[in-house]
């Protein structure tokens, strides 16, 4: 079934959809897993502030990132298609970071899949303003303008729908990173099928999209890293930080697990 789904989504797909393309002024450079050096782990590429559901200000995050020796930082705020505050958010980041020349900072967003065809809940103007876009599954659309109730779905149903939504984003959405892959299944059931992880990694590599190693969602980090070693996808390092204490958490876990060439 996975191969069939993969063929359906990947045949004829393009990274930019009509009406949802984006331009970059600068963006992170993602490495394949086996090529990661310890220096390349020293990044934090998913951070949320008090502009949405995070606890700290932009300035507090930047100061904490510098104190923890991070080399790169991406602000990836939650957005929706009707988000109107993003220009002010970007202006604040650009203003705050002028005095932090030793820290490379990216303006980005986290946006959810709206259907299995890769449609995202984000406006073109926000995409155009971003250096990095994370595509995620947060809810499961019912195809009728609403969402399915997680409580009414089995593990198998949740995992398959999440997989299809993720494959749709990989195939056609203008994203740089597939954020917290399998996250809804992991949060609700504590697992996500290995075959789905493997298929997502393989498809994302074909599209030059990074798979996020997310220390907030992953239940079994070593098992996920074993799959990364097997498939060798492009990877993005993200703690999904909503508090200052969480900055650099994914980096630290990966270092503890021996990831990264010396």
Quick one: overall form? globular
Based on DSSP secondary structure assignment, what is the total number of beta strands?
Answer: 8
User: What class would the helix/strand composition place it in?
Assistant: alpha/beta
How many angstroms separate the termini?
Answer: 40 Å
Strand portion: 15-25%
Q: What kind of sheet is the major sheet?
A: 8 strands, mixed
Q: Are there runs of 5+ residues with pLDDT below 50, and where?
A: 1-19, 21-25
| Average pLDDT metric | 92
Helical amount? 25-40%
Output the number of helix runs.
9
Order of helices and strands: HEEHEHEHEHEHHEHEH
Strand order, largest beta sheet: 1-8-7-6-5-4-3-2
Task: Explain what the structure shows.
This protein is of the alpha/beta class and 262 residues long. Helix content is 36%, strand content 15%. The chain has nine helices and eight strands. The chain has helices at 2-10, 58-67, 86-96, 124-129, 155-172, 183-189, 194-207, 221-231, 249-256, and strands at residues 31-32, 43-47, 72-78, 104-112, 132-136, 177-178, 210-214, 234-238. It has an eight-stranded mixed sheet with strand order 1-8-7-6-5-4-3-2. Helix 8 (221-231) links the parallel strand 7 and strand 8 (234-238). Helix 5 runs antiparallel to helix 6 (183-189). It is globular and about 50 Å long.
């Amino acid at each position: 079934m996975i191969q069939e789904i993969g063929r359906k989504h990947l045949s004829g797909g393009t990274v930019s959809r009509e009406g949802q393309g984006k331009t970059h002024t600068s963006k992170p450079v993602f490495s394949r897993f086996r090529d990661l050096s310890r220096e390349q782990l020293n990044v934090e590429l998913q951070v949320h502030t008090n502009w949405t559901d995070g606890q700290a200000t932009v300035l507090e995050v930047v100061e904490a990132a510098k104190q923890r020796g991070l080399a790169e930082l991406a602000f990836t705020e939650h957005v929706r298609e009707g988000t109107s505050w993003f220009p002010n958010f970007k202006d604040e980041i650009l203003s705050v970071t002028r005095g932090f020349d030793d820290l490379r900072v990216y303006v980005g967003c986290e946006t959810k899949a709206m259907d299995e065809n890769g449609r995202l809940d984000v406006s073109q103007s926000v995409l155009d303003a971003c250096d990095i876009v994370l595509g995620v599954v947060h809810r499961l659309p019912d195809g009728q303008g609403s969402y399915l109730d997680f409580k009414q779905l089995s593990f198998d149903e949740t995992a398959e729908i999440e997989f299809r939504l993720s494959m749709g984003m990989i195939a056609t959405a203008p994203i740089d990173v597939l954020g917290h892959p399998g996250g809804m299944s992991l949060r609700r059931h504590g697992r996500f099928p290995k075959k789905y992880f493997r298929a997502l990694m393989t498809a994302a590599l074909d599209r030059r999209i990074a798979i996020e190693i997310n220390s907030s969602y992953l239940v079994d980090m070593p098992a996920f890293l074993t799959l990364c070693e097997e498939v060798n996808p492009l990877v993005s390092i993200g703690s999904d930080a909503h508090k200052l204490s969480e900055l650099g958490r994914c980096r630290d876990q990966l270092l503890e697990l021996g990831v990264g060439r010396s």
